[in-house]
Fold this sequence. Notes:
5-stranded mixed sheet, 3-stranded antiparallel sheet, disordered C terminus
Amino acid sequence: MPSARKPKRGISVPTLGTRVGKKRSDMRWLDPDGVEWDSRLEYEVYAAAKLAGVCVRKCQRGKPGESGSDTFEYGHSPGRGLKCRVCGSDQVSQSRTYTPDILHYSEVLPAGSEQVYSPGRSDNYYVDVKGYMRANKRSLLRSFCKARPDIALRVILQRDYRLSKTATISQWLSKTLRVPYAIWNGRWPATSDWIMPNEPKVSKKAKKGPKDTAGQLQVGD
């Protein structure tokens, strides 16, 4: 088990439901309403948000661009062993898709509007709930963030797991993905709990500033 920094725990929500995954790697969780989640932690975060009166909903998988779907296309990969049903060609590719876990939306919605993602709204963003992320999962998330910078994504970490002797998952999120994140403490993150990505480094040339123009003749004076 990877080492981790243990955050101070908040007032947690009693987690009701049942694990339905049969394998050790299958963390699926069935809540009391019969809704299936990818993990118990994901449901805990959602339940804590609802308890705090935060406007969230579970993301829905579907076809990219389809009404009510929170699934996004972010590229294509070679379709090995596949053939086109129309022409029989094996030169085909599979679309790569990604579905976040939770949508945080505006508390006040216009009349007749649905609880959907609206780009450009600071209070409208997706949240991914993550435990320890292995290299393949980090690669997938990195590819999505790189291809779809138009999607506002935040991450809630179960713990700040170590990826190596010198790097933690939070450092990877801040430096590589450059997305806001929070460490789970049993409560939905307050505004101050979200850790924003580091500001871009200022070049040495920019630090020096413009050349000193004191004493120079100003044309038009």
